[in-house]
Write the structure tokens for this entry.
Amino acid sequence: MDKRILMDTACQDLLTYGIWDGKHRLKYLIKKYGLRRTEAPQDLIFWPTGLLAAGLWQCRQEIEERRHDRKDVEEQSVKGGGGDAQGGQEAYDGRQGSAGIEWTLMRYYGRWLEKGSKILWLDDLLAGETLLNLCETYRKKKEDNDFINERTVESYRQAVEKLAEFALAYPTDEAGSFPYREAQKNGYIFADSIGLACPFLYQYGVIYDKKETMELAVKQIVNFLAYGMDDTTGLPYHGYRIKDDCKYGIIGWGRAVGWLLRGMIGCMTTAYGAERLTDSYVGIVDAALAFQRKDGYFSWQMQAVEGPADTSATGMICAAVKKGISLGILQDQKYEQALQAGRSAIEKSVRDGRVYDCSGECEGFGQYPQRYGAYPWALGPALML
């Protein structure tokens, strides 16, 4: 899959998606202060752009790896008395792509910091993943560039700490799980939260030696596996509420499977999480692959293989499979084949730099609008493949 045009679109969308214009701001003010309604404020790091940032960061990492590999090859060629002009041009293009991603990410996070780095929802922890990666990359290199320096990274580090403090102070249910919308006081636990919050918390704990955040992340997953799964299919419900011992939403909503797998594999980068989650992760991957369609897609509802395909579900599940392969957790050839089939399917849905055939935003348990188009929650995961 040629990601260059997708990267360009993602960079544009990262800086524009969900940004209010003057008309939108006026409507918000009228509803909030004129009509005294409870209205959600603008969120500069909401989950759709958090997914775009994560996808772009992975592209940046892959570009840097290719640069390093080419540099090694070019050095060997020079030592051997030969060279490859075309390879040198590719290396330049790689640096340009990496720099463009960094510039976009700096603007994205800088805009949020300038507005006070407000954390509105649990969803905002997703954007913390890439911010954490930026800080850690700079810490290892300790090299200033056109985009980041010691002062900049300190402001990022403080924002990362703020995100971690937000999570540690976030209310939980009786079992220690995060309700998706705490202010609603309904105790509903969503699969979405696993993919939104857990990878950030786990990697924060790994980097800063904070065992409590690693434990908190794994606890969210262990609880969902205990209370939110369907024993017959091995797939998750969309969510549950522990106080009435009831599971909610449909079994095998495609993005719920993607969110769950994303959160699990994000907490399996060290032995602590891997030892606790590997068997369950492999079991859910196998359950999901049983419903992969002949055309490589996953449907919006996994078991509805003759229903609409969903590129967001396909991208998220395949991205989690790809990471499982890279960590050596998924070793059978069937996983490589499933990943390649998913990549090919996504590629068929790419038009004009966007990924189509993506289901619209979910509105709650059992509320899955059958609107299909091009959304960030398909583009972000596509960049990870």
About this structure: Strands lie at 189-190, 239-241, 246-248, 350-351, 354-355, 358-359, 372-373. Residues 77-96 have pLDDT under 50 and may be disordered.
